[in-house]
# Entry
Amino acid sequence: MTAYDAIVLAGGAAKRLGGIDKPAVRVGGRALLDRVLAACDGAGNTVVVGGRRPTVRPVRWAREDPPGGGPLAALDAGVRRVEADTVVVLSADLPFLGAPTVHRLIGTLDTSGREAALLVDADGRDQPLVAAYRAEPLRRELALLATEHGNLTGLPLRLLSHELDLARVDADPFASFDCDTWEDISTARARIREHGTVLEEWITAVKDELGIELDVDIPLLLDLARDAAHGVARPAAPLTTFLVGYAAGRAGGDGPEAVEAATRKAVALALRWADEAAGTDGPGADAGGAKGADAG
# Structure
């Protein structure tokens, strides 16, 4: 994929949220800003425009002049800090944005030959803060707007998008869902807890919290927990999965492969244990397993 830098706009007054620090609001246990940073973690450099705060990964910081000068002033501050020819621009309040959408924007920019690729939301509206831009046209238009209006303070984003040669991208309608109100935040939190997404969201939140990067085979671990719970005892499920993680960490090497190897050993043990309890092991059982206890 084309190399790119990212600019994340994390300023604004958040008036409809009572003036709180919106990028720090947590959805699914993770700050909104951290969720957006995860979506663009392939960026060579990531510039966050706004007040400094803890983040899940290292970023560069910038601030618009004057602070609170609006999105175009913030974008100008960010674009001065990037180096790549392709720049992804994102707002910091997109709880459902994922890397596939970012990659699709970049791919569309590459193949279309246009100056920018913007996401289009479910209502057909352009989203200039969920977009990929060619850096030089972006700098050019910002400079022209600053010259025409004296400065960029308070200018609307549409002035920029009207001047660029655009490609438009339809994607997951939730990718452009932003959190402007407490109702939006409540909606986002409820959706994350839906049955089809809650495990993936939880595992991602745990990895962020623990500072680990590891592809987790969720079905494999759930099968292990099931086998341990059914074949041994219910408390064996969480304890076994903990021990598998510990063993994988001590084994070193490739993380996912170490987890898979430890999991398969634990599954085999749980199945042997279950066979003993059921009395189904016998002379033909695996020589590595213990023989069943005398029934009586």
User: Anything to note?
Assistant: The chain has ten helices and nine strands. The chain has a mean pLDDT of 86.
